[in-house]
Queue: 3 jobs
Job 1
Amino acid sequence: NERQHAPMHIAALLIYKAQTTKHKTFLQQEIRQSFKQRLGSSPIFRRRLFTVRYDMDHPYWIEDQHFNLDHHVFSHSIKDHDGDLQALLATLHAQPMDMTRPFWEAHVIHGLGTLKDYDKGSFGLYMKVHHAAMDGVSGTEILATLHNLEPIAFSPEHASAETDSWQADPAPKQWTITRQACLNNLRKPLNLAWQARKLIPSMKRAASVGNVDHAPTVSWQKSPFNSRIDADRNVLLVRFDFCRLRQIRRHYPHTTVNHVILSIIGGALRRYLIAINKLPSNPLASMIPVNVRSRDSDVAGNAISMMIANLRTDIECPLQRLQAVRDASNNAKQFSNTIGRSSITSLVREMPSGLESVALRALSALAYWPGGVALPACTIVSNVPGPPVPLYFNDAKLVDMMALGLILDHLGLFHVAMSYNGVMTLSVLSSPSSLKEPEMYRRCLEASYATLDEAVTREADSKDGPLEKRA
């Protein structure tokens, strides 16, 4: 059900500082050999989807008999893109993946040392993986398999001496899969009924008197971000001082850095929509991915659900907005826990594939509805924890990292916050049709952060002295 204009992959950009400057040809060969050494560290690298005829069942994962590393590792130079890293990322992220091959690509970006933000010899690695194969949580675990905790020089002799004993299993016969699909379709109504039966007690608990107060207030709104997207992409990268964000969140009890980020985004959306004269009277909300992965689950794969948190775009005061966002988010989380984070996900997983396809096509068709449709959320905001310690790719130190989500018809704005090395990088993914003035929105994000920072500092100074001394 994936559309060409809305590919469903996610990505990470990793920036490295090399100990010695290497010619890009040698660097490219070294990175390729390094990936070859690590192919066995995760099933993601060499498995692909096997689709069932007539959409009778969900696709199956199989090992790719024709796997070729050259189809997955590519090279780019920042000089060929006028030194514009964000433009290069937008171009790479807009390109759909080959769905007949394993769902990942690694793009080496040479010449980042020419940019003011990075040292000489720096290079980048743009890792793109389809969302069906990996979510943000498993993504951080996959990245861990590619890195060392200390610098280890790459050894060509060691790499060439290693032999890969991997052999792909034979591809399943179509008639075998068809038979299995028929059996699954016989089981799924029973499984669906069982999952629905398990959900009923949770819904009763959520509807009880004590939990109704914690039910999230959902306001269905029309916004410019809920329109049909086009095939092009815009990428914004905005950086915040992570230590400062932690100081701000300590100013109020039961507040997290994620609440601070949501409040900053709420303030930025308010500023942007006022500027284009499209701010709705009721507040907009965000969908937030929730990890439902069990402790014993496989590293690879996708295991997330969603909850809706109010961004309180109706509140002008940054301090009041932060507290309101915190309360709304905590209520949404408690309500989600009451129902069961994995309950809805399990229910959807048991839907017959054909019925799910029809539902998704119908939802996509709503993007063509004249004037748009009202939806409970205008964006997705994901907070992906970065590694707490320095990492190395061979002997190159990881100095910066950020992540990119995916956008769809109706949800044309995606924020990802990722922290590493004392910096919180907020990436904003959109299309030209959903965010017509991306640079204006960048200024709105920066202004929203600045006003919140100033307001917290003023309040702290008036009470107990400078915030820095109390943090």
Job 2
Amino acid sequence: MRDRKISLTDLNQLRIWIESKPDVSEGSWYKDFGSFKLCGEGSYPKTFLLAGQTAKGRKL
């Protein structure tokens, strides 16, 4: 967490988002949490990107 400079606030936003059971579409998508992005495909998260990295798919 410290090495990647992910804030506790953003991790808490991720927790809240997951608990809300988001409706994600089929295909590629990403959710921007500020200090990182969560990328996935269908109902599965695939990878985390740093804030400056480019994500593919539909922005949630």
Job 3
Amino acid sequence: MSAAEPSYLYKLIPSTAPVREPLPDQLPVSEIDLKSGFVHLSTALQVPNTLKIFFKDEPLVYVLRIPYGRVARDIRFEDPEGRVCGPRPEEGLFPVSLGNAASITSKINL
């Protein structure tokens, strides 16, 4: 990552995802994160286009703000391949979790 680390990372969750009652103490692993083997996160700069590209049909999206310091040691920044949404070079590197998705979601307390 560059010298300027983000203060926060963001996890976008569609409102159509089932909401458990009562709310869990930690974020459950989403189906897409399980399939990918990592947690999909965004920086503040990336959130608007991620919403437009991947959540355009969602009526409402929850945006979880995660303090970067809480997960920094489990995050690396990668250049997106652009196979799904095309290149997005103006948005910089994307944060992805190291290890399995469950390990990082256990650090994201709701």
